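TA notes, week 10

Several of you asked for a full example with nothing omitted. So below is the full record: structure tokens for the whole chain, then the designed sequence directly under it. When grading your own attempts, check the secondary structure regions first.
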């Protein structure tokens, strides 16, 4: 049995028209080509990087190489690297959750009053444009030189994006649908819970996808400034002692962590939207 359209019934392969079968086969071929091309680009880049380091096109001491990075992974004590990864992951998830839920709550409050929303809009734009790293010394003085400062940095970077993204979605919800529901006596909170918020679930997950990366950026920026553990600390330490292989190993781990976190949000989005029949 093949899966039918959302909310519909499954269709047996023999019930499909030849044109439909050809279309589905073309989609599968296109997906396979896409996966193969992506994998080919990555493998080609790694091989070219290794070749350039071996034949002397680049200085492997400065640019490192895949083989040297793998050797660095082997030299790192397992408990040490896991500790650094756990610290960065904890700070990232904490900052992400605070920024996402705090930003969503603030967006809901601003949506309640169009006048307050218009008053706050230019300040939100300025805060979003402000380089948060410039606030690093101030944040350290306010909350102390520790994990708290790193989490606050992550929240500062991700929260405003959530507010702007969700507020824009709330304000662009189908006005005709809202007026019709209001004509039937729906209150403000009912409009939000039954129409506005469900209509903006894709926007919410889109902001979460953006924010998980921004939270990781904020954490690494904070660890650059003040930390005693974490991948950012590992990268800074490697740069200070000129162990560029260690720096590149930390960058590779960060990339893998970012992909994994993004993938988790994508899976959650598919599960939620599938459950709602989208």
């Amino acid at each position: 049995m093949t899966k039918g359209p959302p909310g519909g019934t499954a269709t047996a392969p023999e019930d499909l028209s030849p044109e439909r079968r050809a279309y589905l086969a073309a989609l599968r071929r296109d997906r396979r080509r896409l996966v193969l091309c992506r994998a080919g680009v990555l493998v080609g880049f790694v091989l070219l990087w290794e070749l350039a380091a071996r034949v002397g096109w680049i200085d492997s001491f400065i640019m490192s190489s895949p083989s040297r990075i793998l050797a660095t992974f082997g030299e790192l004590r397992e408990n040490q690297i896991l500790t650094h990864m756990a610290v960065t992951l904890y700070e990232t998830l904490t900052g992400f959750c605070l920024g996402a839920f705090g930003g969503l709550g603030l967006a809901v409050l601003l949506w309640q009053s169009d006048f307050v929303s218009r008053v706050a809009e230019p300040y939100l734009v300025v805060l979003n444009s402000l380089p948060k790293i410039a606030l690093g010394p101030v944040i350290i003085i306010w909350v102390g030189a520790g994990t708290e400062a790193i989490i606050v940095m992550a929240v500062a970077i991700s929260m405003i994006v959530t507010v702007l993204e969700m507020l824009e979605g709330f304000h662009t919800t189908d006005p005709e649908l809202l007026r019709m529901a209001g004509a039937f006596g729906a209150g403000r909170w009912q409009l939000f819970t039954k129409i506005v918020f469900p209509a903006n679930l894709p926007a919410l997950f889109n902001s979460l996808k953006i924010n998980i990366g921004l939270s990781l950026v904020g954490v690494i920026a904070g660890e650059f400034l003040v930390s005693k553990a974490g991948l950012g600390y590992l990268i800074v330490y490697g740069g200070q002692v000129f162990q560029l292989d260690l720096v590149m190993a930390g960058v590779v781990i960060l990339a893998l962590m970012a992909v994994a976190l993004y993938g988790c949000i994508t899976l959650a989005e598919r599960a939620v939207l599938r459950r709602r029949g989208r």
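DSSP finds twelve helices and no strands in the chain. Use that as a sanity check on your answer.
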